Amino acid sequence: MKKYIALLRGINIGGRNKIAMPLLRAAFEKKGFSNVTTYINSGNVLFSSNIQDKDELIDICEALIVEEFDLAIPVAVISVEEAAEQLSHAPEWWNQEKETIHYVIFLIPPMTVEEVFASVGEIKPEYEQIAYYGDMIFWSAPRTTFNKTRWSKIASSSVNNHVTIRNANTVNKLLSMAQ
């Protein structure tokens, strides 16, 4: 069995797309996934499965959310092994400065890194840093100038519904919980 992390996009934000984590965990178990755990209220699910195809896992996860919660929620799925490998290639500046916000942008297939960069545009180097490895985009910006960054506007870009974003603390916690 392989371990995976499912990252649901846009749930429990501002009273919209509400899903209780115990019910989400039960829905994953009902679909036959094992070792199911959720972390915080933003739709992070750790699970194990014999299914090796990520696209198939995404389809199953998205279908179970429709079936159980009547919500069409995009989902990114990454194996714990892939997540650890990609995170080990994070740039040296990522997740270092305390007064800086550090994010990982996860792609929801079929979105590509190139499409995200083309849509959001070049960074403003005086305010933000960005790099990627595999399907993870690492982005950091100081808190004091965060709203001046180009990439803070990703929510208003054409790729918004095709990515899901987690902060460094969440990503690191998910990885430590899974290992």
Strand segment count: 8
Number of helices: 5
The overall pLDDT, averaged over residues, is: 96
- The first-to-last residue Cα distance is 14 Å
CATH topology of the largest domain: Alpha-Beta Plaits
Largest sheet, spatial ordering of strands = 2-3-1-4
- CATH homologous superfamily designation of the largest domain: bacterial protein sp0830 like
Taking all Cα atoms into account, the compactness measure Rg is 16 Å
The proportion of residues forming helix, as a percent range, comes to 25-40%
N-to-C SSE series?
Answer: EHEEHEHEHEEEH
Q: Please name the CATH architecture of the largest domain.
A: 2-Layer Sandwich
Principal-axes geometry comes out as: globular
List low-confidence stretches.
none
Please describe what this structure looks like.
With about 180 residues, the chain is of the alpha+beta class. The protein has two domains: about 1-80, SP0830-like domains (Alpha-Beta Plaits, 2-Layer Sandwich); about 85-179, bacterial protein sp0830 like (Alpha-Beta Plaits), CATH 3.30.70.1260. Helices cover about 30% and strands about 25% of the residues. The protein is built from five helices and eight strands. The chain has a four-stranded antiparallel beta sheet with strand order 2-3-1-4, sandwiched between helices. Strands 6-7-5-8 form a four-stranded antiparallel beta sheet. The chain starts with a strand and ends with a helix. The model has no long low-confidence stretch (mean pLDDT about 95).
